[in-house]
């Protein structure tokens, strides 16, 4: 059945479907129960599935992830919510040393089917620690898988796929898109596999590579560029670890130019890895160096400066112009 | 350090006062260091001669595992070994109190508990030899892999116990079904945030977990006074569950207290903190040198409280074991030592290409490509050294 939903609704419905499909799926986090989460992503789920399956946790992120490890060892599939990106660091040790390594440590005997949901990125006028983009730190960690949804329909499907997956998944949700706009969901359609990138707008002059909140920025930039006679291709990476480079190579070999766009700091961000891989695989197709547009290498600024800090349509087009001039 | 009189709060001069060399008045003990059986109003149990000999045998064999592993490290067969010397009673007492359906989360020093869970002692050596990170399936023994990050496993234990609650295996009254978790850690770990968070989660959800802290007085070079200004067991009350201090060198008391706490957890009455008051008679690990930071006099004093010696005195004085029992056990320990030495040296080295396939349950094209690339690279050396 087709219906129009926001990203928040897509995630909420996806969580509900996952809980209906498998009674081992548990949700845990701060305020996820009665309140339905500070962004209301888990709205109504405790009421319908009970306090044993939708668990309001003490206010301790390491405790949330660490106890979820134990639940997974007992055969459950915990889905934990980290309330904001900047609050994930107390759980960093458990994520990196335990969640990521238990399968390897146990020679594959212990599975860790856990999803760690993190609302990420800026643009909501928040105070410090509420607007960060920590994805590279997790993508850099063997044993984790990292995905980012960019739209309501992907949110609906990707959360279900991540929960059904047997490896730990860091699930990044662009918080500024939660309630931004609606999209048509037809849940009778077959979703694309979780760990695949998607070409979301075809073009021929340059390729924009992005994920999460900046996919929308890139689509807007491509639309504006079209008005100036420039044809930009846009790829929504969706999966950050592992990367699905096939569609990227195919695109860059055609366009000869690539610009990576993310909110995270440019230095040692996903863009660096993408640029290196594209250079290794598409060297003779490239007409220009791979350029990166992202957050500056400063801490996230006070919110009245965030529009300066975040890559926007004009900064993306500026990079495209620099690429096309070469 | 003396306490400043602030004019408020309780008088803490007693707890901050002279260190209780004997564990203090709250220490639960059933067998004194001199080998005298004493009664306890809450935690007394009757032990048959066979049970007592069993505890003794366990401790002797576990000490032998420890001694052999230490020697294997000295001979270069192990990279490092974490010694349990002096903590045999704490570990056997706790390990024997666990039922088959219970689950145990060890640190990296619980060799005695591993032995109680039926793990082949040889399997304990792999991690320290560098051939694996722990080569057993936790669910085969209900005994998790050793965890090296200090205190991290206490949260896993609490989560596992929360899983038991959801499985309906707590407080049903069925002794075959009701289950609990035993979480090990040390005095140093008691300072970790994870351990304190585990206490909070366990209390909040009334999880069936027993926190078993072996206070061996030393966190590598740092004495217990650096970790806590009050006896550790007294911290439990602040988290909302009972704390007990047991003589960790007394296998009978440790067994009795752990058994009671685990049953309380299985019955659905929630967590208990047990501080097993003991002493690390060896070094932190084979790389450590305790002569740099502690007095030999301390060690000599604790040698008088040796967990094995006191039970031996009790067995002999009360005619509970024949001479043949001791000589047979000595032979069994020798045989175990021999098996460990030979088995350790025969452990196969790990194969480099295996690591790529163990990162994920569902591997990635990137890792497959790295594995294949490395295999091709290795193949270029084939025959080069022959």
From TrEMBL, chain A:
This is Alpha-ketoacid dehydrogenase subunit beta. It comes from the Bacteria. Transmembrane segments: none annotated. GO terms for molecular function: magnesium ion binding; oxidoreductase activity. Pfam families: Transket_pyr (PF02779), Transketolase_C (PF02780). Residues 5-180 form the Transketolase-like pyrimidine-binding domain. Its cofactor is thiamine diphosphate.
